[in-house]
Amino acid sequence: MPPRVTIVDVAARAGVAISSVSSALNNRPGVSDDTRKRILEAAEDLGFVPSLRGRSLSAKRAFAVGLVVHRDPYVLESDPFFGSFIGGIETVLDPRGYALILQMGSERVETLDRYRSLAANRRVDGVFLNELGVDDPRIPLVQELGLPAVGVNAGPAFPLPAVRQDHGRGIAELVDHFVTLGHRRFAHVSGPHEFIHGHQRRRAWGDALAAAGMEPGVVVEGDFTYEGGVSAADRVFGGGSREARPVHPTAVFCSNDLSAIGFMARASELGFRVPEDVSVAGYDGIELGTYVRPALTTIRTNPRLIGREAARMLLDAIDACPEGTRRIPDVDVDPAHLLVRSSTGPAPLQD
Amino acid sequence: MPPRVTIVDVAARAGVAISSVSSALNNRPGVSDDTRKRILEAAEDLGFVPSLRGRSLSAKRAFAVGLVVHRDPYVLESDPFFGSFIGGIETVLDPRGYALILQMGSERVETLDRYRSLAANRRVDGVFLNELGVDDPRIPLVQELGLPAVGVNAGPAFPLPAVRQDHGRGIAELVDHFVTLGHRRFAHVSGPHEFIHGHQRRRAWGDALAAAGMEPGVVVEGDFTYEGGVSAADRVFGGGSREARPVHPTAVFCSNDLSAIGFMARASELGFRVPEDVSVAGYDGIELGTYVRPALTTIRTNPRLIGREAARMLLDAIDACPEGTRRIPDVDVDPAHLLVRSSTGPAPLQD
DNA sequence: TCCCGGTACCGAAACGTTTCGGTACTTGTC
DNA sequence: GACAAGTACCGAAACGTTTCGGTACCGGGA
Q1: How far apart are CA A240 and CA A244, in angstroms?
Q2: What class does CATH assign to B168-301?
Q3: Which single residue of A234, A263, B132, B253 could bond A229 by disulfide (Cβ 3.0 to 4.6 Å)?
Q4: Domains of chain A: which residue ranges?
Q5: pLDDT tens across A316-330, in order?
Q6: CB neighbours (10 Å) of residue A27?
Q7: What DSSP state is assigned to residue B146?
Q8: In what order do the strands lie in the sheet containing A218-221?
Q9: Burial of A326 by CB count in 10 Å (0-12 exposed, 13-18 middle, 19+ buried)?
């Protein structure tokens, strides 16, 4: 553990004051080309890397941003969103010298405390607000704390900068796909109502059906899990086998892929063939959907892109923060589109 | 954004020097009970929270540790390990005032650079070495950098502190289970050979079979993915249907659950019923395995526990670091055990 | 009475940057 | 040739802690 080489060493080697070294390395004016070159050489020779700690203290910045997820193991484990989302975040953070601090909170309340302590000791300069709920308590919290934040897939009235990927378009495409295939009886397995994105997908589904002149069909509440999809299938089909239910929904939209896969599995067990008897579609576009049989028709989102834009916005918001609260414009990434695979097909001949 | 309350404010309010405040708040001697109480009150009144930045600079510590994962979206997305592993890490880090910095590197080389820059600007005090490969280049790197590190599921000759969960025990239980059910022809879908854990599971499988007096059977290399399990099934069954292969392995051990699930799916397509024609077992114990049909027999690991122990060790190693390189003893968490569900059953009557 | 050890407290340095005000020198203008 | 303006560079303060050496005071022993 050799003692770190500091700006003082560089200054000594170049024969200048440390303030000149700082100016030179940060491309500030007031240093002659000659001196600047000498300083850069000295820094290079010594392998100088500015100390993040020194910079942090002086700049009053942590050079880090925070992401808090629920501790529920199943979230990071099975939600495909986070892996790609974090990957997208990283592509922006790293080149700008920022790092991502990941925290987990088991309970909703504990999650709030995480944000609070992150802000209290100034460990981060800003945070992501993910998996927003309706009336999410984190919103007033970050406002009160004066902590820069961006919302991910926030609702329309969200009072902070946000990045969104439109649900409506892909869902309208799905409804169109279903109707074209002759489907007339629909069902939706929603996400939990307390989450904005579950809420929005459900509404977009209802709107698109209405726009197509269709009956709204049945809606059962799921929870974004495989198991939720399984029990949703039981509810949609009334727990009966295919023979017992000659008239049933023939086109089902599940609010995410995982629940759609669970739904398909249970439907098969009940004797409903997919897609011959019932068409099933999901939402997300996770890898697993390409492997199950039949391969899952879905609406493919782009979490990586969302992460990238969210990170870009957050860093902008942080930069803008001191000089007045300049408002960062919201970003809408390319909407999610329908991806037709094998789990959807023509409506069966019944009625 | 009210100006932060600092130790100076507390000192002023309590009418003492800042050094006394520091001593009082850190439970150091040299402060009378009377004064200490006054200081604590002042700190409380003002809502003082010590600045992490100031402490970092003074203590020459970042109060953060790093975890680098491959950017391959499928890793965080589908590998159940990380979610729980990180959860376990958090339970230790948080109470000790540490935070986790998560980085992603797409390539092996880039991953190395991440470690290097993490160390260069001293963003972290230590790192986890996960998904170790044979002759992993990160080992000499952290040694050269003098960066405290702990290995996760490292090999036996690993030169740094490590936490391990034994593979042998559960795999021996699985072999025993298979043999008791009358199986005599075996196959193994391995992980990539360049990863230590893939390597170890394969060897433990071979050893356990030998110990039971069985033929080693066929081994095909997989890649820990669902798709890898699918193509492994093709290779194990020679791509033929059940009728075309009257003699085939009847008991298959896949090196992780995801590939086992892929294997089962493809086996079904080829006409092999699970478990009537072929028994299949995985490794990990992911949630998905409880939902597929038949539910997957597996060997359940405990990533959360591994994360917890790894974090504990890393913090210990960091604390021990300055005062000589005191060696932290390795930790073996409770071994992984067999969890029998429905994908394994009696050997079919053939021969 | 003198000294000695111990305790409570203080002041200042140190950590490694950035930034700001100031000084010396150069150049241009009348 | 004096003065203003501009440039290159320097020194010191500031960021918020911890730590270390020092001072003042108090009690006890000779």
Answers
A1: 6
A2: alpha beta
A3: A263
A4: 7-57, 64-164+303-332, 168-301
A5: 999 886 555 567 889
A6: 8
A7: T
A8: A218-221, A186-190, A251-254, A279-281
A9: exposed
The answer to whether strand D lies under 7 Å from the CB of residue B60 is no
State pLDDT tens for residues B170-204. 999 999 999 999 999 999 999 988 889 899 999 99
Which chain B residue lies closest to A91 (C-alpha atoms)? Answer: B104
* CB of A170 closer than 8 Å to CB of A338: yes
- pTM to 2 decimals? 0.92
Residue B265 to residue A293, Cβ atoms within 8 A: yes
Query: Each residue of B62-87: pLDDT tens digit?
Result: 999 999 987 665 555 556 678 889 98
The residue among A72 and B150 whose pLDDT is bigger is B150
At the top level of CATH, which class does the domain A64-164+303-332 belong to?
Answer: alpha beta
Fold equal for A7-57 and A64-164+303-332: no
Cβ within 8 Å, pair B104-A84: no
Here the tokens at position A6 are 């500091």
Residue B291 to residue A230, Cβ atoms within 8 A: yes
Which superfamily does CATH assign the domain made up of B7-57 to? lambda repressor-like DNA-binding domains (1.10.260.40)
Amino acid at B123: R
Give tens-digit pLDDT for A178-231: 999 999 999 999 998 888 988 999 999 999 999 999 999 999 999 888 889 999
Q: Phi then psi for A219, rounded to 5 degrees? A: -125, 120
Contacts of A231 (CB under 8 A, 6+ apart): A222, A266
Nearest CB neighbour to B52, from listed A54, A103, A121: A121
Distance (Å, whole) CA B108 – CA B110: 6
